[in-house]
Amino acid sequence: MVTSGRDEVRRVRFNAPDGPGLELEVLSRDELGRRTAHALDKPHRTEFHRLMLVDAGHSWHEVDSIQHPLSPGTVLWVRPGQVQRFGPPLDSELVLFTPGVPAGSPSELGALLGDQHGGLVWSLEGEAYRSIREIARQLRLEAARSTATADWARRHLLSVLLLRISHTDPTRPAPGNADDIAARFAAEVERDFARTHRVADYADRLGYSVRTLSRASTTATGHCAREVVEARITLEAKRLLAYTNLAAAAVGRRLGFSEPTNFGKFFLRRTGLTPGQFRRTLTR
């Protein structure tokens, strides 16, 4: 899986249709394949959310080295920055939208959008999938319009779509103040995990004590604040080791470790493997 001669994962962007407001596009898997210049079956990142609704067929979609099976009724959500690649084509609709919470959205949606490690795949049946698919159909109609009222409709339809999907997961914690704090914390970690590993720095920036930040994170996600930071660093380390040929020391420097030995110890503690051992498991 290590790509020879590459020191970065391919980044893919999308051009939202002309019009005011929310950057959003709805298109089929076939339409995306015909339009893109890069190979969808090669590892790449996006800087936008990619929601896939599977209508027919069977395939897979790889996200951060994990292959998720796809079948009719599958809903898959790939978040910005995740490394992904497509499997064989199938009949599906894709909803692409840039980060950010639509105006007037409830705190539950803010927590959902800010959760980089939240629910990824849902397998829905019957009316549960049909209702979500109908919202996506309406969203596609509004995405083609370039008026201020269409933007208003897009924002509300997107909010309803995402909330409807999240409500199919009964294990998701109820919305509340802890979710708001945890979502803001996750967003800060996403921006600065390579520059600072200290929870205290994030707490100071957000205006909370370390204890409050960690308690809110644990309540909303089940993981303390330190675990959230370390999990994000570990995830990026795995991505760089898997999809680039950067030396382990260079990966460590990119992730904010001043000494290669510190990165090696951190990675071993988190994964049970040294960076070199982890990379070798990918070539078996």
Please provide a written account of the structure.
There is one protein chain. The chain has 284 residues and is an alpha+beta fold. Helices cover 47% and strands 17% of the residues. It is built from eleven helices and ten strands. It has helices at 29-35, 107-114, 126-143, 148-166, 177-192, 199-206, 210-221, 225-243, 248-254, 260-271, 275-281, and strands at 10-12, 24-28, 44-46, 49-56, 59-63, 66-70, 74-78, 83-86, 91-97, 121-123. The strands form two sheets. A five-stranded mixed sheet has the order 1-3-8-5-6, with no helix packed on it. A five-stranded antiparallel sheet has the order 2-9-4-7-10. A hairpin with a 2-residue loop joins strand 5 and strand 6. It is globular, with a radius of gyration of 20 Å.
Average pLDDT confidence is: 84
Q: Can you count the helices?
A: 11
The backbone outline, from C-alpha atoms, is globular
Low-confidence stretches: 1-5
Strand composition percent: 15-25%
Beta-strand segment tally: 10
- Distance between the first and last residues' Cα: 10 Å
The largest β sheet comes out as:
5 strands, mixed
SSE ordering: EEHEEEEEEEHEHHHHHHHHH
Structural class: alpha+beta
C-alpha Rg (nearest Å): 20 Å
Sum up the structure in keywords.
284 residues, alpha+beta, 47% helix, 17% strand, disordered N terminus, five-stranded antiparallel β-sheet, five-stranded mixed β-sheet
